[in-house]
Amino acid sequence: MYLVRLIYASRKPRDIVDDSINDILVSARKHNSANSITGLLCFNRKYFLQCIEGSRKKVNETYQRILKDERHEDIIMLDYCEIIKREFTDWSMGYIPDSSLTHDINLKFSGSSEFDPFEMSGESAHQMMLELKEQVPVVD
After folding, report:
1. Are 13 and 46 in contact (CB under 8 A)?
2. Residue 122, pLDDT above cutoff 90
3. Of 9, 16, 39, 61, which residue is most buried, by most CB within 10 angstroms?
4. For the BLUF domain, which residue ranges apply (predicted)?
5. Where does the pLDDT of residue 23 fall: very low under 50, low under 70, confident under 90, or very high at 90 and above?
C-alpha cells in the first residue's frame, strides 16, 4: 500500500451557509476514520484548503467525492505526492479556522496576511499547514 498526500483548495459557494462547515467536518471525520484517512482543513468563510493523507486508493476515492460535493466550487489540486509517513496522524480531520493567530503564518507562506490558497504553491500550502499544526490550536 502506497501512502499519498493530496492538497486542494476550493471556494465556498455563496449560497452555502457558514454552518455547513460543521456538516463537512462531521462527514469528513466519519468517512476518514472508516478509511484510515488523516488530514487538516483550513477555512476562512470563503476558501477551503485541505490536506488529506492515506492509501492512494482511499485518498483518490475521497478526492473524487469532494469533486462532486456542492459545498465546494472551483476545486483545484495544489499538490499530490507519495509520502513515506503521515504528518497529520492525530486527526481524522483537524480544523483550523481563520483567526488573528493565523495572519502572520499566512503572510509567511503567501503574498499577504489574507488567507487565499489560490495564491499559494502546493509546497507553500503544505508548509503553512505544518506550521499551523504546530502553532495554532486545532478544533477537534
Report:
1. no
2. yes
3. 39
4. 3-94
5. confident
